[in-house]
């Protein structure tokens, strides 16, 4: 999985979000389908981006309690 390409896609999704603050909930299965990789590879690469500080990961407090990604 190409980390920079995934970061650019997620970054664009967050910036285009109409929510305040801007965030997005991601479906790793759908992203894996777009990039023709396994969902586990997408999850691993997203975690690497979080560990590098390029993305922040949180969880919504209200149902449906999605994991969300924000820009730092």
Task: Give a description of the structure.
It is a single chain. The chain is 49% helix and 14% strand. It is of the alpha+beta class. The chain has a 3-stranded antiparallel sheet with strand order 1-3-2, covered by helices on one side. Helix 2 (28-35) packs across helix 3 (39-52). The longest helix is centred in the middle third of the chain and has 14 residues, at 39-52. The protein starts with a helix and ends with a strand.
In the sheet with the most strands, the strands line up as: 1-3-2
Strand proportion: 5-15%
Query: Mind describing the biggest β-sheet?
Result: 3 strands, antiparallel
Specify the structural class. alpha+beta
**Mean pLDDT across residues:** 93
Order of helices and strands: HEHHEE
Radius of gyration: 12 Å
Distance between the termini: 22 Å
Question: Helical stretch count?
Answer: 3
Total number of strands? 3
Please tell me what the overall shape is. Answer: globular
Helix-residue proportion: 40-55%
Uncertain stretches: none
